[in-house]
TrEMBL record, chain A:
An example molecular function term from Gene Ontology annotations: electron transfer activity
Oligomer and partners: Heterodimer of an alpha and a beta subunit.
Domain Electron transfer flavoprotein alpha/beta-subunit N-terminal intervals: 23-212
Cited PANTHER family: ELECTRON TRANSFER FLAVOPROTEIN BETA-SUBUNIT, ELECTRON TRANSFER FLAVOPROTEIN SUBUNIT BETA
Cofactor(s) the protein requires to work: FAD
Keyword field: Electron transport, Transport
Species the sequence originates in: Mumia zhuanghuii
Lineage of the species this protein comes from: Bacteria, Bacillati, Actinomycetota, Actinomycetes, Propionibacteriales
GO cellular component: cytosol
Chain's role: The electron transfer flavoprotein serves as a specific electron acceptor for other dehydrogenases. It transfers the electrons to the main respiratory chain via ETF-ubiquinone oxidoreductase (ETF dehydrogenase).
Protein name: Electron transfer flavoprotein subunit beta
Superkingdom of source: Bacteria
UniProtKB/TrEMBL annotation, chain B:
Cofactor: FAD
SUPFAM superfamilies named in the record: Acyl-CoA dehydrogenase C-terminal domain-like, Acyl-CoA dehydrogenase NM domain-like
Coiled-coil stretches: none
Name under which the protein is recorded: Acyl-CoA dehydrogenase
Keyword line: FAD, Flavoprotein, Oxidoreductase
Organism: Mumia zhuanghuii
Length: 259, 379
């Protein structure tokens, strides 16, 4: 079973993130980046699925030079090799363009399953897995909180608000996993040493036969027109209990539609 | 604010990042409750072990990380900056493997070292006795040769990980005098070996300390490390490296205390401005920062001597003395900076102060460090 995990290099969600004022895209310079924490779950599931077979786990990323750090982290966790698509013209790409690049890159690889995290921690759209599946004409089983791979069948449990679904698909297929799918492992120091020797292939748009006009900020279907920092939190409202405290609390909750 | 570190290699940079990640996600959320409840965090050591952090200073051929002390000690410091007991435990584990690595035969090393460094096992060492702490040559625990075995009887006091460890490096007397001590590697499940009730300590509650009682403990002769009579020199050689570990631990705790104090002093106001803007307090913080960074520089200087294969015994004692005395001052000052709040358990600084105190005592009291340093000068 060969598996490709698509991972994204994102600004650290615990840092002060903001937009770049010149083009209203996410500021990737000002904060440290890392492998999206939600993608660590996908790496974990891919490693587990590949564990007792003789297949390989390839980690694929589209992103700037620093995105190599995300690939390296996944290799340290245990993935076998990396593919990094990097091109200045990719900057500002939206989900549609990203899915195009990923689909083309997947076309150069051998795989049975393609794993994704449920969404990125910066854009948080969660649509790229299905877009990639659509482009490749593959079944997509998404938001899996339990993943079982048996032969060429992948079974996914999907926890919804009102029901739990169990969905199966036959490889080749696209799978996205949630943060309930199982805690990702830490790399080990041996993994850190081993990752130094693992191959990473660098690809550009022209390697993939993609014209620069199809991707980047110019090709984006949506555009951020303006942004403003969220106003600082205002002080809460203190209810003094003068015998009617309970009523006031109930009124407050009702006004916020909590009850 | 994380300490500024100049790491020698790319993998050591990644190693520090891995350590910080594990520290933030696995240690910080647990330390307060575990220290209050005096519960030993065995699972945390397994996590560290699986990540390869318990075997770092030993060669890769035995399952270690092949890292120089310069790197290994900074990992220990990072661990201790969040949880002193676990930092101490990491250093004690490394020390418990030291005898086998330095004095064991190739066969002994190949047989036992990979498991000891593999991360699932935890070690302890038994040198001190109730009446023989600073002067271990006064020990009384005996190992008597009977056929292919030694039979050990006695009590080894103050054993860190006592009752929790999987193996014990034990110093016991095989004949009279300081050259009459031998070193043994004793599995925890050997009949006759039990831990007494843990000590009720001032701090480091998450690190179990107990007297190990030896009642006719039979150890195969092949588990003796080095020759009969070499035990004390094996133990003391290990202590040189262990002292560097304690210096790193103390520096980590001091860094943790400094970080809490600075963050508090930026927020807390008196007389209409943040207290960090009162020079009288700002200078206290400046002295704390200077003490932390000079402690780090001192243990790293000693570590680099060791890594280069040069004698480093005096420098190790200097590093232990400087780092633990500095840390005592820094953690005491951190309580001061927090005022009344610092004296409560709402903040970790009072715990840091209690934890650092013992670092001036174990692995050779700071008086004994001065003894080692001054004897070296007199020679
Ligand atoms: C929490 C904890 C964990 C420990 N872990 C271990 C362990 O894992 N393994 C182990 O073997 N031991 C361990 N120890 C023991 C530790 O190493 C001893 O406590 C230490 O060596 C001091 O010995 P002592 O307590 O007997 O003090 P003593 O030797 O009785 O010293 C009492 C005082 O006299 C001073 N003193 C003694 N001799 C001199 C001298 N010649 N000149 C000047 N001053 C002197 C000392 O500095 C000290 O201030 C641990 C101790 C503690 C508290
Ligand atoms: C156990 C205990 C019992 C107490 N009992 C009582 C009691 O019975 N009654 C009562 O009224 N209070 C009591 N207190 C309060 C005590 O007096 C205060 O904690 C003390 O005055 C310090 O104030 P603070 O804690 O607000 O520290 P802060 O005023 O916030 O000071 C924090 C730090 O900043 C330093 N600092 C502040 N201003 C300056 C400056 N201008 N220049 C230089 N440094 C500065 C301080 O020295 C300290 O190191 C008690 C406190 C404790 C811990």
């Amino acid at each position: 079973m060969n598996i490709v995990v698509c991972v994204k290099y994102v600004p650290d969600a615990t840092a002060d993130r903001s937009f770049d004022s010149s083009d209203s895209t996410v500021d990737r310079e000002g904060v440290d980046g890392l492998l999206s924490e939600l993608d660590e779950y996908a790496v974990e599931q891919a490693l587990l699925a590949a564990e007792d077979g003789d297949g390989e786990v390839t980690v694929l990323t589209v992103g700037p030079a620093d995105a190599a750090d995300a690939v390296r982290k996944a290799l340290q966790m245990g993935a076998d090799k990396g593919v990094h698509v990097e091109d200045d013209d990719i900057a500002g790409s939206d989900a549609v363009a990203t899915s195009l690049i990923l689909a083309k890159a997947l076309g150069t690889l051998e795989y049975d399953l393609v794993f994704f995290g449920m969404s990125s921690t910066d854009g948080t759209m969660g649509v790229v897995p299905t877009m990639v599946a659509e482009r490749l004409g593959l079944p997509a089983v998404t938001y899996g909180s339990e993943i079982t791979v048996d032969g060429s069948t992948v079974t996914v449990r999907r926890d919804g608000d009102v029901a739990t679904e169990t969905i199966t698909a036959t490889a080749p297929a696209v799978v996205s996993v949630t943060d309930q799918s199982g805690e990702p492992r830490y790399p080990s120091f041996k993994g850190i040493m081993a990752a130094k020797k693992k191959p990473v292939e660098d690809l550009t748009l022209s390697d993939l036969g993609i014209d620069a006009s199809e991707v980047g900020l110019g090709a984006a279907w949506t555009k951020v027109l303006s942004f403003a920092p969220r106003p600082p939190r205002s002080a809460g409202e203190i209810v003094t209990d003068e015998g009617d405290g309970g009523t006031k609390l109930a009124e407050f909750l009702a006004s916020k539609k909590f009850v | 604010m994380p300490a500024e570190r100049l790491m020698p290699t790319e993998e050591s940079i990644d190693l520090i990042a891995l350590t910080r990640d594990i520290v933030d996600r696995e240690l910080r959320p647990r330390v307060d409750a575990a220290e209050r409840a005096a519960s030993f965090p065995r699972e945390v050591f397994r996590t560290l072990g699986r990540a390869g952090l318990l075997g770092l200073p030993y060669p890769e051929e035995y399952g270690g990380g092949g890292q120089p002390y310069e790197v290994y000690l900074q990992v220990v410091e990072e661990i201790a900056s969040a949880w002193a007991s676990v930092g101490v435990g990491t250093s004690v584990h490394a020390l418990s493997c030291f005898g086998l690595f330095t004095a064991g035969t190739d066969e002994q090393k190949q047989r036992w070292l990979p498991d000891m460094l593999g991360g699932e096992l935890l070690g302890a060492y038994c040198l001190s006795e109730a009446h023989a702490g600073s002067d271990p040559a006064a020990m009384r625990t005996r190992a008597v040769r009977v056929g292919d075995e030694y039979v050990i009887d006695g009590a080894k006091a103050w054993t860190t990980h006592g009752g929790e460890a999987d193996f014990y490096k034990v110093m016991a007397r095989t004949s009279e005098g300081s050259r009459g001590i031998s070193c043994f590697l004793v599995p925890a499940d050997t009949p006759g070996l039990v831990a007494d009730n843990p000590e009720d300590k001032m701090g480091l509650m998450g690190s179990t300390t107990a007297t190990m009682l030896f009642d006719g403990v039979r150890v195969p002769a092949e588990r003796r490390l080095g020759e009969e009579g070499q035990g004390l020199s094996i133990a003391l050689a290990g202590l040189d490296s262990g002292r560097l570990g304690i210096a790193a631990v103390a520096t980590g705790v001091a860094q943790g205390a400094l970080d809490v104090a600075v963050a508090y002093a930026r927020e807390r106001e008196s007389f209409g401005k943040p207290i960090i803007e009162h020079q009288g307090l700002a200078f206290v913080l400046a002295d704390m920062a200077a003490a932390v960074e000079s402690a780090r520089a001192t243990y790293l200087a000693a570590a680099r001597l060791k890594d280069a294969g040069r004698p480093f015994s005096r420098q190790a004692s200097i590093a232990k003395l400087v780092a633990t005395d500095n840390a005592m001052r820094v953690t005491t000052d951190a309580v001061q900076v927090l005022g009344g709040a610092g004296y409560t358990k709402d903040f970790p600084v009072e715990r840091y102060m209690r934890e650092v105190k013992v670092m001036q005592i174990f692995e050779g009291t700071n008086q004994i460090q001065r003894l080692v340093i001054s004897r070296g000068l007199a020679r």
